[in-house]
Amino acid sequence: MFRKGKGEVQGVSLYFEDGTSVKNNWDGAEKRKKIIDKLKGREVITDVWGGYSDSIWFANVYLK
Q1: Which pLDDT band holds residue 2 (cuts at 50, 70, 90)?
Q2: C-alpha angle 19/53/20, rounded to 5°?
Q3: Contact assessment for residue 16 and residue 23, using Cβ atoms and an 8 Å cutoff
Q4: How many other CB atoms are there within 10 angstroms of residue 29's CB atom?
Q5: Count of domains forming the chain
Q6: pLDDT tens-place string over residues 12-58
Q7: How far is CA 58 from the centre of its chain?
Q8: How would DSSP label each residue in the chain?
């Protein structure tokens, strides 16, 4: 992933069965990926903070 003003950064993208996807390139991508890997195949909910679009970005992932 690329972040404006930062160049290439690590990030996590989530792809859902309905064809949608969201991404996160904030600090802590490795830790976040390890947690999310345990949720593969499970039904989840994501949220976002600030003025970011929830159709593009996520901040947290929760089991539904």
Answers
A1: low
A2: 5
A3: no
A4: 16
A5: 1
A6: 999 999 999 999 988 888 898 899 999 999 999 999 999 999 999 99
A7: 5
A8: -EETTTEE---EEEE-TTS-EEEE-SS-HHHHHHHHHTTTTS-EEEE--TT--TTTB-SEEEE-
Count other C-beta atoms under 10 Å from residue 53's C-beta.
8
Whether this prediction's pTM lies above 0.90 is answered by: no
Dihedral, 51, 52, 58, 61 alpha carbons, nearest 10: 20
Structural contact between residues 29 and 61, judged by C-beta atoms closer than 8 angstroms? no
11 within 8 A of 2, measured Cβ to Cβ: no
Note down the domain range covering 37. 2-63
